Each structure stands twice: as structure tokens, then as C-alpha cells.
Amino acid sequence: MTDDSKKTVTMTFRIEEGVMGKLRSESDKREVSLNTLVNQILKRFVEWDVYEPKVGMIPIARPLVHTLFESMDREEILEMAQKIGKGVVHDIALFMKTRMDLSSFLSWLETRMKSSSIEFSHSENEGRHVFVMKHDLGYNWSLYHKTLLEQIFNEILNRRVDIMVSNTMLTLTVDE
After folding, report:
1. What is the pTM of this model?
2. Is 72 within a domain?
3. Is residue 131 situated within a structural domain?
4. Which of 48, 66, 88, 98 could cross-link to 115 by cystine, CB 3.0-4.6 Å?
């Protein structure tokens, strides 16, 4: 089912005048209708924001993440991904999606990237999914995610995955 064909409901809300002004201004900047913007905000809330505190996630500034990852050597990155990252990501995805299969994990990954302000694209053609993530957080961030994602796909989802990394990008390809 495409986003356009999903059922909708009409609802009325009372919104503070100042908040409404900011919403209108933001919808103008983004060149989307006020209705579309409010739907995006509510969707992000129910798919991500409501879970963030429950799973122990905290927002952290991009320069800090970059500096922390770049201060670690390769062995520290690999150890963190293998000993902590895989289990944490698995548990968070399972909690938020209530199951752990290829479809639910890919959906969770896409939501996570969008919620993390990572430039992200996802295409699917004949059962092959390609995710491209532009992060600008350095090679170690890419290596960390490559390592934990390979473990999740190989060990938990029993899927072969191809992941290419650079200082600024991570590309993941997986077949259904």
C-alpha cells in the first residue's frame, strides 16, 4: 500500500496561535501543505519520538559524535560494534517494531536514519534493497555501522548483505 492510498481520518484540534504561526511558516519553507507537515510531525512522533526515551536513546550533537568516533582506533570501533552495538540495535529495533525480520528491520533502519538527520535514500527493485546513507561523520562511524549491520543481517536475519563504506557514505545492499 502506498502512502497516497492509506486511509485518513478528519480530526479537529485546538492549537496555540503562536504554534500555528510557526507551523505555517515551516510548511511554507518546505513548500508542503500545512496538512502534510502536521502528518509528517505526527508520524515521526508515533514511529520514533515516543520510543526514544523508552529505549534509552539520547540526542547528541553531530560534532561530538564525529569527534568521539574519530578518537577511537579500528580495534576499539570493531569491539564496540561487536560487543555492544549489535545487541543494542537488535533490542531497540525489536522493541519498536515488535518483531525482528527483514521487513521490520529495514523499516526501522529507514526510520532511524530519517530521525537522525542522516541524508538517506532507499530504493527497491525486484526484491533488492539499496540504502545509501550520507552522514559526513568519518570513516570510523561507517566502519562501526558496517560491522554491526553485517552481524545483524548475517547472524540474526540470516541474510547476505553487501556494505560499502567511505568517510562520508555507507551503502547497504540486501536481497529479500
Report:
1. 0.81
2. yes
3. yes
4. 48
Total count of domains within the chain: 2
Same domain for 74 and 131? yes
Number of H helices, E strands in the chain: 7, 4
Q: Tell me, what's the pLDDT at 44? A: 87
Answer whether 153's CB lies under 8 Å from 147's CB. Answer: no
Separation between Cα atoms, residue 120 and residue 174, nearest integer Å: 16
Give the range of the structural domain holding residue 25, as residue numbers without chain letter: 3-49
37 and 121 together in one domain: no
What pLDDT, on a 0 to 100 scale, did the predictor assign at position 154?
94
Closest CA to 138 of 51, 76, 52, 67: 67
- Residue 174 and residue 99 in contact, taking contact as beta carbons nearer than 8 Å: no
Q: Has residue 3 got a pLDDT over 70? A: no
What CA–CA distance (Å, rounded) separates 55 from 144? 20
Residue 69 contacts residue 140 (beta carbons within 8 Å):
yes
Which pLDDT band holds residue 14 (cuts at 50, 70, 90)? very high
